[in-house]
């Protein structure tokens, strides 16, 4: 076993303090070190199970860590505005608002029926 793996196993052992199974929550630094070591050994032709065993990890844990991409966040500036108050329809006229957000004003009930029939 090379020195880097021994150092990782020692650091992981100090971190886990005898915990086993799903009770272990590794730090992001330990995860990064394990993934970096695993990538080197996998590129060298070693199997995933053998690499996980060498690192003292479960193969499923190492598989999940290798699949996860590092997250990068991007800040986007948003402008929030309130919509203008809805205008009142002239008396006797109907306002048609479609589910897509289109607004048609100034129609009488017969014209609204025609528009709805043509849309369906």
What is the count of β-strands? 2
Distance between the termini: 71 Å
- What is the CATH architecture descriptor of the largest domain? Orthogonal Bundle
Overall mean confidence score, pLDDT: 78
Uncertain runs with pLDDT below 50, 5 residues or more? none
Q: Strand count, sense and closure of the main sheet?
A: 2 strands, antiparallel
Q: Please state the overall shape, judged from the principal axes of the Cα atoms.
A: rod-shaped
**Order of SSEs, N→C?**
HHHHEEH
Describe the overall structure.
- With 120 residues, this protein is mainly α.
- It folds into two domains: 3-67, Arc Repressor Mutant, subunit A; 90-120, no CATH class.
- Helix content is 48%, strand content 8%.
- The protein is built from five helices and two strands.
- The protein has helices spanning 3-16, 28-43, 48-55, 59-67, 109-119, and strands spanning 94-97, 103-107.
- It has a two-stranded antiparallel ribbon.
Topology:
Layout: H1 3-16, H2 28-43, H3 48-55, H4 59-67, E1 94-97, E2 103-107, H5 109-119
Antiparallel strand pairs: 1-2
Helix pairs in contact: 1-2, 2-3, 3-4
List the main descriptive attributes of the protein structure presented here.
single chain, 120 residues, mainly alpha, Arc Repressor Mutant, subunit A, 2 domains, two-stranded antiparallel sheet, 5 helices, 2 strands, 48% helix
């Amino acid at each position: 076993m090379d020195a880097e793996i021994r150092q990782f196993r020692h650091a992981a052992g100090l971190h886990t303090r005898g915990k086993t199974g799903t009770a272990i929550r590794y730090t992001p630094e330990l995860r990064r070190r394990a993934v970096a070591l695993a990538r080197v050994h996998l590129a060298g032709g070693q199997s995933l199970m053998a690499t996980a065993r060498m690192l003292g990890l479960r193969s499923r844990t190492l598989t999940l860590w290798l699949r996860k991409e590092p997250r990068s966040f991007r800040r986007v500036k948003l402008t929030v505005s309130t919509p203008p108050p809805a205008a009142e329809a002239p008396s006797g006229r109907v306002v048609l608002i479609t589910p897509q957000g289109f607004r048609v004003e100034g129609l009488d009930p017969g014209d609204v029926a025609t528009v709805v029939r043509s849309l369906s």
